[in-house]
Structures are given as C-alpha cells and as structure tokens.
Amino acid sequence: MSKFNTARAPAATSPVRGEATPSAVTHQGAPGYARDARSELFLLAVTNMVGEHTFYESADARDTRFTALVHAATLKDPQWTARFLGWLRSEANLRTASLVGAAEFAKARRDAGLDGLGRQVVADVLQRADEPGELLAYWTSVHGRNVPKPVKRGIADAARKLYDERAYVKWDSAARAFRFADVLELTHPAARDTAQGELFKHILDERHDRGNPLPETLGVLRARAELTSWEVPRRRALLQRPDAADVLRAAGMTWESVAGWLQGPLDARVWEALIPSMGYMAQLRNLRNFDEAGVSDEVAQRVAARLADPGQVAKSRQLPMRFLSAYRAAPSLRWAWALEQAIAHSLANVPRLPGRTLVLVDTSSSMNMGFSRDGTLMRWDAAAVFGLALGRRCADADVVSFSDRLLGGTRTKVFKLRPGGSLLSDVERWKSGGFFLGGGTNTAGAVKKHFAKHDRVVILTDEQAVYGDVGHALPAQVPLYTWNLAGYRFGHAPSGSANRHTFGGLTDQAFRMIPLLEAGRNADWPF
C-alpha cells in the first residue's frame, strides 16, 4: 500500500510561521502562539503606523519592538530583510515603517562591523523627494549627528535620483528640520548632469543667501519666480486665460502653493485650472474641496474617469482604505461610482473562492483604534472593507461581525450581502446598521457559533482573543485563515502549516495565498 504517492495533496505551507502549541497568552488572556522573528516583523511592519499608539501597546513599546525585530532579522538574514524593506516601501506603500526599517538595518550592520547592503537598502526605500531629509531627521534624532557613510551614500544616491526643480519647489520648506540644502551639504551627491549640478548650486546659494542669479537652465524656477513677482490682481486674472493650467504647470505650481500665491480662497475657476496638473492622490484627497467650490460637472466627470481608471489606480499605489476615506469625505454622490470602481480595482487580488466560506470580522473595542493620521478610519473599518470584499467574491459566504458579551458569551451579528450591491455601500450599511459591536474578543466562541460545515473560515482581527484556543475551535481539516490587522506579538492560533495560516497587511496581496494553499501549493513571502 502506498504511503506517499496518493491522490491527496500534502499540506501546503505559508510564510508566517508560529509555534504548534501556545507558550504564552494574548493581551486578553487566551492561549497565545509565538512566531519566529521574521513572521513577527512582517506582521508588525505591514500594520505599523510608526509613532502611533495601539489599544494594547504604546507607541514607544511598539517602535522599540519594531527596531529590535529589524536588528534581529538583519543580522540573521540580511538578504531577506533587504528585500522585505524594499517591498514594504514599494508594493505595500508603507513609507514611514520602511524608512525607519532601512535606517535600523544600516545601524545593525554598522554595530556588528559588517560592510555592504546598508547603502543599497537606504537608497531603495527613499522614493519621494522629501524622504532623504526625513531619514536624516530620524537618524539624528535617534542615533545622533554622526551619520555613517553607508547611510550618507544611500541618501546621496536617492537625492541624485529624486531631486529636480519640481521636487525642490514642492518639498523644500523652512518648516522642515533638514532642507534640500542640508541633505546636499551632509551627503554630497554627485549631480547626474549639468542641469542638476546647476540646481544643486542654486539650492545652496538660496540657503546661504548668496544672491546669485537663477541660471538659464532652471526653467521651472525661472517661470515660478516670474509668477511670484506679479501683483495679486494679475495672478487672479491668469485664471481667466485658457492656458492657465499650462502656465501653472510650467512653473511647478501645486494646488498647495497656488493657495498661498493667490492670497485668497480657491474658487471653482481656480480648481478647474489646477485639476489638469494635479496628481492622482491630490485629486482624490480634494473631492470635498471640488464640491464646496462648485467645480462643474464636466470637469468632475474628467476627474471621476481618472479615479476609476484601473491603470491610474495601479500606478497611484493608493491603499484601499484611501478610497473609503474619500467616499466618506465627499459631500456629493457624483464621485460614488468612480470610487466604487477604484476600490474594486485596488482589491483586484481578492480571489473568487468556491464552496462555502465563513468570514468573521472582529469589531471588539481593541479594533476601534485609529488607522489613519486624521483619525477618521479605524482598524475595524479595514477589517470590514477586506471582509466584505472577500464575502462578495465568494461563491457562498456568511459574513459575521463578532465580539463578546459584557458578562461572558459571544456577541455576533450576521451581515446579509445584497445581490448587486456595492462594497462602499456595504461598508456604510455596516457602520449605520450597528455592526461595530465593541466589547471583548470571543473569537473561539464566534467560530463555534457560526461554523456549519463551511469549506474554510477567514477571520479579520487583531488576534487578541479573550477566551479559548481559536486554532482548535473548528475541525483540523478545515482551513483557518487569520488576517492580522494589528501586529501584536502573540497570535490566537498556530500558523504556517496544517490548515492554519496567518496573513497581514493593508493591501489585497495576501489574499492571493488562499487559492495557492487550497491547491496544495506552498505560499511564499510576497517579495
């Protein structure tokens, strides 16, 4: 009788690995499963808003744990850590966590007396022109003003790549501790061509008030200086001209700079002149301003078409939650369909799963923590978005909000998916219908209460369960997928094999693992 060559596929593995039996407890006292250092770092990094408190962990404690994990991973597996930090900035689009990670990567290598990789990693994560100064500010505030050569050279490489006239007028500001001139003087990047060399010289001249004239090669700065010399009435008169957008674009005038340049409010005519030169993110975040200024429907239709374009969505690298935030902020409904299409494009990797799926969304009090800088989005908003998106892609899904009751027991509420409905309207119905429950996190109780011979269970949670062992709450042969949205140290179930898998992040990429695992194929890191 064959022992190995059978029709049944071997159990697939996934990259986030945890112990098989619990060695600790969660913050709420349920059995807690430790993970290896790479897995813990990954889950923390993809949910980490650096410097922000979470329900169970202070900002300082969280940042200290992140630093320690980066150091440990750097010394144990520098190549993996380098790839991870590059992916964290580019594909995951998490700017601050990747920047801090790169600085700490270089610090760990330097402290261990190791050469190589630090410069490359620093250069890779710096992808926007304000970030060289940001990394210098982080380094000097945490590690002092002695910046080692690998860090300096990585920052110099990034400045050479990112610094141009438009970047200078957009990002250089007296409000920043490290301005472009400081970056140039501290890191000494070699200009890539004559024009950039002239720009570097001008930046230093301006910072030190040398009074040298603008070189002829710097056309954007010269155009900007011309506009700045105009009196306010002439500035406003420009907005009446059909070529206003071209004139402003040639001078590198962003919507933020135009607001100060006009010394007054941005009315509909001003916005309509600015919109053609605005980036995708700038348009997305200004929908309320467009409405309040009375931008015409014709112009709004062009903005909506761009927002809904799948190529533009992909290029913008906006997180799905950004579209929910824009939807909630916009006072009119003329953006709703475009934003619905945009969030659908941003969630394109959510798979279409056959069979029956139980989707459990944690809406306990610990999930009611800020998930955006302005505090308008919470972790449970993210759980609802991803859970409802998955529910809509499944052939047959039961979507349930869960927490626990004050005096014990499980509190749940089943959400009925309406045929033909939209994700954004589902999320708002979730909010208005009382599906954010609060209270504790009785995950095992919710699984036992709602599991009814489903083919799989997906739980979106911070994993801080209050009762029971979640990993043993359903039969071992049923896949349990945990979507971690907080990155705390201990998880609520085993992970990595035996039908128990943990994912994490603020994008849809990890969803791609589910079909792989169910086809018996091992899933690896997304980088």
Structure description:
The chain is an alpha/beta fold. The chain folds into three domains: 59-91 and 94-207, no CATH class; 219-345; 350-518, 3-Layer(aba) Sandwich (Rossmann fold), CATH 3.40.50. Helix content is 48%, strand content 8%. The chain has helices spanning 37-45, 59-76, 78-90, 95-111, 118-125, 131-143, 149-162, 165-171, 180-187, 194-207, 219-228, 232-238, 244-250, 255-262, 268-274, 280-285, 287-293, 297-308, 310-316, 320-329, 336-346, 379-393, 423-432, 443-450, 513-518, and strands at residues 24-25, 31-32, 356-362, 396-404, 410-415, 456-461, 480-484, 500-504. The chain has a six-stranded mixed beta sheet with strand order 5-4-3-6-7-8. Helix 1 packs across helix 2 (59-76) and helix 22 (379-393) packs across helix 23.
Within the CATH hierarchy, at the fold level, what is the topology of the largest domain? Rossmann fold
Taken as a percent bin, the fraction of beta residues is: 5-15%
- Which stretches are poorly predicted, pLDDT < 50 over at least 5 residues? 1-9
Q: How would a crystallographer describe the biggest sheet?
A: 6 strands, mixed
- Content-based structural category: alpha/beta
Give the C-alpha Rg: 26 Å
